[in-house]
Design brief:
three-stranded antiparallel β-sheet, 3 strands, binds zinc ion
Length: about 120
């Protein structure tokens, strides 16, 4: 089964939360983003990070942090679309969407801390 780039980014983010460091140098093999985790360098692009990240269960805090990150980036995307949107119906849908993202963010624990 092929993993989407989104999944890979998710896994990379998960690894970073588990203490991995993103490296500035791209992978010599495929040019992908590399991370150093537990003393080893892994490519987030051509390696299967799900094994490294492990499925031993992300903590609730990990998941909350991930959801926050996703919501914030989605809000940014929606804001960009809204800026360019001329159609009033679509504007309304976008603002409703942003409102739900915002409500969800408000419900997450650790409010007030910058992500
Ligand atoms: Zn690679």
């Amino acid at each position: 089964m092929g993993r989407s780039a989104k999944d890979k980014m998710k896994l990379a983010a998960e690894l970073v939360r588990k203490g991995a460091t993103m490296l500035a140098e791209p992978c010599p093999q495929c040019g992908g983003i590399q991370v150093r985790f537990r003393g080893k360098v892994h490519c987030t692009s051509h390696e299967d990070l799900s094994e490294i990240a492990g499925t031993e269960g992300a903590s609730f805090g990990d998941v909350v942090a991930m959801v926050k990150g996703v919501l914030i980036s989605k809000m940014g995307e929606a804001a960009h679309s809204l800026e360019a949107e001329k159609d009033l119906d679509r504007q309304q849908r976008l603002t409703a969407l942003m409102n739900s993202y915002f409500e969800l963010l408000e419900k997450l624990p650790g409010k007030g801390q910058s992500p």
